[in-house]
Specification:
Order of helices and strands: HHHHHHEHEHEHEHEHEHE
Structural class: alpha/beta
CATH topology of the largest domain: Rossmann fold
Strand content: 5-15%
Radius of gyration: 18 Å
Mean pLDDT: 92
Strand order of the largest sheet: 1-7-6-5-2-3-4
CATH architecture of the largest domain: 3-Layer(aba) Sandwich
Shape: globular
Low-confidence stretches: none
CATH class of the largest domain: Alpha Beta
CATH superfamily of the largest domain: Uncharacterised protein PF01937, DUF89, domain 3
Number of helices: 12
Length: about 290
Amino acid sequence: MKISYECGPCFLRQAREALDLSTDDENLKMEIMGEIFEYLSQNFKSGTNSNSTGSTMHALIKQRTGCADPYHKEKIESNNLALKYLPDVKKILEEDDSLENHVKIAIIGNILDFGAFTLDDDIESVIKNSLKKDLTIKDIVEFENSLKANDKVLYLVDNTGEIVFDKLLLSKIKEYGLDITIAVKSEPILNDACMAEALDAGLDEFGSIVEIGAGTVGYVDSKISDEFREIFNSHKFVISKGMGNYEGLTEIDLSTKEIYFLLCAKCNTISRDIGVNLQDMLLFKK
């Protein structure tokens, strides 16, 4: 997906956050922010790829600060907090074990920023209230048909914390008898799930976990490894979680694939691109 004018302040917000997590050296932060201003002044223009721009910016921060994983602590805490609520979510699903509810739970995982919650927050109410909302785009019939018609699926995960809720949808997918391949980032980027966090969350219970060969914001086709490209090309049926993967995958030809996007539209640029309202919950086939 291409950047909009609203991506500018978002890039700068992310840069500030990553810098604060990477170093306490105020002079270094000033230097790096100046370099980011220079980079954006040259590259922030219509037609620029949003994922590639963000990836370059975060790579610069990691290289200049020497901090390879600024969000390491936050990722661990997000997974641990989500795991504490997993039994409660399972109880909710016992009341309605439908495929649609499992999809909603996976999307609610995309809504919840576990890094911003504490054990004192009423996450259960957030979950229950979100479950009452209907999916704005609900290609659930097509989705179930794909589950029945295919023997394997590639599942592209998004953030830590969120991946714990993905387990419930992965468990439901298993009931359809599919072999599941779960794709994670190869290198740390933001709070995205890498191999360590996926294993910590127990995703290996449901399928084989593979790395995409890159540590990019979302999916950047030019950066994935040859090994992952083989895996991607060999899967007709793909499930994509989150906005970053949507931004990247919609840049390439998907005409030969049955690809479903599960996400919450959390920014205006994404909302406009899809044609929905802010905070809408979506399951749609592209």
